[in-house]
Structure formats: structure tokens, C-alpha cells
Write a structure and sequence with these properties.
Layout: H1 3-9, E1 13-18, H2 24-28, H3 31-39, E2 44-47, H4 59-69, E3 74-80, H5 86-98, E4 103-107, H6 124-134, E5 138-143, H7 154-167, E6 169-176, H8 180-192, E7 199-203, H9 209-219, H10 225-234, H11 238-258, E8 263-267, H12 272-281
Parallel strand pairs: 1-2, 1-8, 2-3, 3-4, 4-5, 5-6, 6-7, 7-8
Helix pairs in contact: 3-12, 6-7, 10-11
């Protein structure tokens, strides 16, 4: 099922993000994680993509096939384009089509000094247009409530996002953030800018101080003072940070749902206990 149709049918769409294990033997053991995640009845699960592989040995595609055919949940395959040419992207697309996978999250991808960039796709909007012109996927795009780290301004951010939507992106999934006001202002700006597709907030529960600082530095998300206090107070106490971080994420999600967002996209970090705790906390809300 195309995820754009899911958003048309449901108000509170619930989705998870997972990443493929790096080792082949770990991929075989991911079923324990998937069993728990799928028991929580997500509307879809997105699978992150590591650049550098081919369509013949791609763990993202293998994991997406497992999610769709063994667990009967819709997968959304992340597809980056900065380090691939059109022929390579077409190879991926044809494999996805052959497997009946309908949903793709089209991304530029992070710059990597160890991987050469190729000229065919400079921006995610180029990939969206190519996929929309040549294939029958439901295409999702990424968005940044606090602006992409390389963006010139909020105005240019919204204009470029509009190009992505005009090229064929039917759903937008947001990067993580820790202050809901940023997301609400961002959605308002998008609507003013003529972007009318579903915009789903992405939430990452903080259970590891070093991990979250890595993510913040990578994506440019800011830490509100009340959140910094949590990290400062509990950062050296693993269990305390887990409890505080989960409570903070849950309060974010409850506030978002109370404000009628299009859904919740949960960055699970392949930790089913995190997903279960969040879902238990919103069982009667979502």
C-alpha cells in the first residue's frame, strides 16, 4: 500500500525507522526486533540506506523485503543519490519494483569523504523527479524543522522543499527535534509556502548522551535548556537518563498528537523496548 493513501485513511499514522545491521549474521537475527516492532502495529517501517553498495548486496533492500513479505508491514526504503549515477539508481528502482515495494524515501545523502560524489543527482529533488517520471513509487521526502545544515535561510529552505514536493514527493518525514514549537512554526511556514502534503514529525527518544550529541551535530538540531538540564543531570547515570529521556520523548509526542499532527515517526535505533514503551504510553491517545 502507498503510504500517501495511509495518510488519507488515518489521522494518527504511526511509523518506525530502523537501520540494517552491518553484519550478515546480525541481519539473520533481526527477527526478534521485527517481531516486537510489528506487534505494535505500525502503519509502515522505514529502512535507512548506507551508500556504497549495489542492488545485488544491499542490506536495506533485504530488510525491506523481510518486513513486507514476512511481517506484512509496508516498508519505506531510504534511497540516497549523491554517490550514485542514473544507471545505479535505476538498478535499485527495478529491484524494488520486482519485490513489490511501493514506497521510497528519496534523499540526497550525507557527504562522505570516502565516497566520490557523482554529478547525476545533486539534490534530493533531482532524485524525486527521476523516480516520479520513470517509476510508480509513492515518494516521501525529508524535511528539517530547524533547516538543513547547508541551507542558506528559512526562506530558501521552504522554496527548496516546495521544489521537492512539486517534483513528486507525496509525504514529508522530519528530522529529529526536541522543541515542538520549531515543528509547529515549520509546518505553518510550509503551508504558507504552498506545501500541502502530510508532514510527519520525527522523534528520537534520548537514552544515550553521547549518541544524541552525535546526532545533534550531524543534523543541526538544537537542544532546549530544559533538555540540556536533563542531559547534564542524568548523563552519567544510564538508567536515569533512559527514564528521563523516554519521559521527555513521550511528552513531546503527546503534545504533538494533541495538536493534530499528521502522525508520529519514531526513530527506534533498533531498540524494540524503546518503541514498546512509547507505544504503551500513547495506546489510548493515538
Amino acid at each position: 500500500m502507498r503510504i500517501a493513501d495511509i495518510y488519507k485513511e488515518k489521522k494518527n499514522v504511526l511509523s518506525f525507522e530502523i537501520f540494517p545491521p552491518k553484519k550478515d549474521d546480525e541481519l539473520k537475527n533481526i527477527d526478534a526486533t521485527l517481531e516486537i516492532l510489528c506487534e505494535l502495529n505500525p502503519d509502515y517501517i522505514s529502512v535507512t540506506f548506507g551508500a556504497g553498495g549495489s542492488s545485488n548486496n544491499n542490506k536495506t533492500i533485504d530488510l525491506a523485503k523481510k518486513i513486507k513479505h514476512e511481517y506484512h508491514v509496508e516498508p519505506v526504503v531510504h534511497l540516497t543519490c549523491l554517490c550514485y549515477d542514473k544507471q545505479e539508481i535505476d538498478e535499485f528502482a527495478k529491484v524494488l519494483q520486482a519485490e513489490g515495494i511501493e514506497n521510497v524515501l528519496a534523499l540526497r545523502g550525507d557527504r562522505n569523504p570516502n565516497l566520490p560524489e557523482k554529478p547525476d543527482f545533486r539534490y534530493a529533488s533531482n532524485l524525486v523527479k527521476h523516480l516520479n517520471t520513470n517509476y510508480d513509487f509513492c515518494i516521501a521526502g525529508a524535511c528539517y524543522p530547524e533547516c538543513h545544515p547547508e541551507s542558506e535561510s528559512r526562506v530558501s529552505e521552504i522554496r527548496n522543499l516546495k521544489k521537492k514536493v512539486d517534483a513528486g514527493a507525496e509525504v514529508l518525514l522530519s528530522q529529529l527535534f526536541f522543541d515542538n514549537d520549531y515543528f509547529y512554526r515549520f509546518v505553518d511556514d510550509c503551508r504558507i509556502g504552498g506545501i500541502d502534503v502530510p508532514i510527519t514529525p520525527g522523534i528520537m527518544p534520548v537514552i544515550n548522551g553521547a549518541q544524541i550529541m552525535r546526532m545533534v551535530n550531524l543534523c543541526g538540531a538544537s537542544l532546549p535548556p530544559k533538555f540540556e538540564k536533563i542531559i547534564k543531570r542524568y548523563g552519567d547515570n544510564k538508567q536515569a537518563l533512559y527514564d528521563a529521556g523516554m519521559s521527555y520523548a513521550l511528552s513531546q509526542i503527546i503534545d504533538l498528537l494533541a495538536n493534530d499532527v499528521d502522525g508520529i515517526h519514531l526513530y527506534t535505533m533498533n531498540n524494540p523496548a524503546v518503541a514498546r514503551k512509547i507505544c504503551d504510553g500513547i495506546r489510548n491517545i493515538i
